Amino acid sequence: MTKPLKAEIIAVGTELLLGQIANTNAQWLSKQFAATGINVYQHAVVGDNLDRVTAVFAGAQKRSDIILVTGGLGPTEDDLTREAFQKISGLQMVEHASSMKKIETFFKERQMDMTPNNRKQARVFAGAKVLENKAGMAPGMIVEHAGRTWIFLPGVPREMKWLTEHAVLPYLQQVKGMKGVIKSAVLKFIGIGESLLEDKVSSLIQAQSNPTIAPLAQEEGVVIRLTAKADTMEEADELIEETKQQILAKVGKHFVGMDEDSIEEQVVSLLKEKHKQIAAAESLTGGMFTERLVSVEGASKVCAGGIVSYTEEVKKNVLGVSEKTIRENGTVSRECAMEMAERVRQKLGADIGISFTGVAGPEEVEGHPAGTVFIAIMPRDGMVSVEKFTLHGTRNSIRKKAVLKGLQLIFEALN
């Protein structure tokens, strides 16, 4: 039986450690490796310091079969990837003629002076497989050294992705004889907690083998990650689809989509399907609910618009909430939420009105503590719904959670 290859990904760049940019390269590369059946065992980020980069490279050489390095291939003094690898490998560097010509042509066509340090980008290790970078200047490299495969790619995401798709993965498939694929899919649920979801599908989890089933709590609901291993992508897709249907048979009413699907996309889709328009009156959410809806392509067909009625005066004079309702019940109340939803529905000629009123904090309002939220749904014909929530977190997190609750309520009402 062939021993599975161990891979690790190393990102070089102090800007990553300082948090100036996120290490999205490693996340993307891990997905590509997983889909090819390569197990990524470790991620590392190291700053632009020759001794530290060398130490990280030395450790990787001892433990991993495939080491993919991003960054540090540029022309400046802090681009130290080549120098660090040379220290652990002893390999000579040479100037790659076609890469150098490409760099010279780049500057000549733009009538720019090429400084001497730009020649550094054309330096490669003797015997390396040089990867032409059609998305940028610095070439990539694959070096087989002491039983390890070292892959060096630029840190610019566009260039890294192009080289991975067009050169790195085909090389690993051909030279390493990679067989089989690993495919993951994420099922998204809303309106059900992690523990209840896990209980509902516990029999499937206990019997799992392939795909594996992993429930996870996230900020915008609960997800189940399915991971299948198969000889081909088509077989992996079939395994995932079969398990997905078994899960949906138990908790399908809470399902809102897969992978990159969003709750707002599902709401817009349901509104289109039912030929309904919605309008929103937003107090504490300040337009966030409407913004999420209109971020979806085609939302203009189902979103009539919204009114941000943040103050009491706007609630009365623009939205039309009665002074009696506010005097007797306050602006943070079921009654005010109901009237807000009804008035915005009428004013904008929509089929459904939804309203948000409450206390984002930090101080209490009208005797209500921060996190008190009322959401009302007022359809032209159908059942009126008003829900009270007690949400926790910072001022902005309470606002975001209120929007998510509103999307959940509309999703459930339409579904």
From TrEMBL:
Listed transmembrane segments: none
Residue stretches in coiled coil: none
Stored SUPFAM superfamilies: CinA-like (SSF142433), Molybdenum cofactor biosynthesis proteins (SSF53218)
Pfam families cross-referenced by the UniProt entry: CinA (PF02464), CinA_KH (PF18146), MoCF_biosynth (PF00994)
SMART domains (UniProt xref): MoCF_biosynth (SM00852)
Residues annotated as signal peptide: none
NCBIfam families with a match to the protein in the record: cinA_nterm (TIGR00200), molyb_syn (TIGR00177), PncC_domain (TIGR00199), PRK00549.1 (NF001813)
Protein name: Putative competence-damage inducible protein
Species annotation: Virgibacillus xinjiangensis
Gene giving rise to this polypeptide: cinA
